[in-house]
Design brief:
Layout lengths: L2 E5 L2 E3 L5 E8 L7 E7 L6 E6 L6 E3 L7 E6 L4 E6 L8 E8 L3 E3 L3 E5 L2
Parallel strand pairs: 2-11
Antiparallel strand pairs: 1-3, 3-8, 4-5, 4-9, 5-6, 7-8, 9-10, 9-11
């Protein structure tokens, strides 16, 4: 059974930081490219960050460049997203995504940036 379980979301003040984690199981994690997407209320889902299966290549959405770092641990089937200097507009549900020849999604974790 494929599972992507996100954790680490919550309420954070503007300027703060948080670290999201995604625990993967049920598929060959090290073969999949992993990504974080987010969807704010009333907006389309957008790419936050991606990391290739080997971990050597990362890509970031324009809105988070310089503030986000994606990483993965292929020995533990984990992918992380470190977000710094959070803004109110970072408020969204954050989803973990795994993609190879098939695509999997997690259930999402809410991140709310508010004072």
């Amino acid at each position: 059974q494929v599972q992507l379980v996100e954790s680490g979301g919550g309420l954070v003040q503007p300027g703060g930081s948080l670290r999201l984690s995604c625990a993967a199981s049920g598929f060959s994690f090290s073969r999949f490219d992993m990504s974080w997407y987010r969807q704010a209320t009333g907006k389309e889902r957008e790419l936050v960050a991606s990391i290739r299966s080997t971990g050597r290549t990362t890509t970031y959405g324009d809105s988070v460049k310089g503030r986000a770092t994606i990483s993965r641990d292929n020995t533990k089937n984990l992918v992380h997203l470190q977000m710094n200097s959070l803004k109110i507009e970072d408020t969204a549900v954050y989803y973990c995504n795994a993609k190879e020849w098939v695509e999997y999604w997690g259930q999402g974790t809410q991140v709310t940036v508010s004072s």
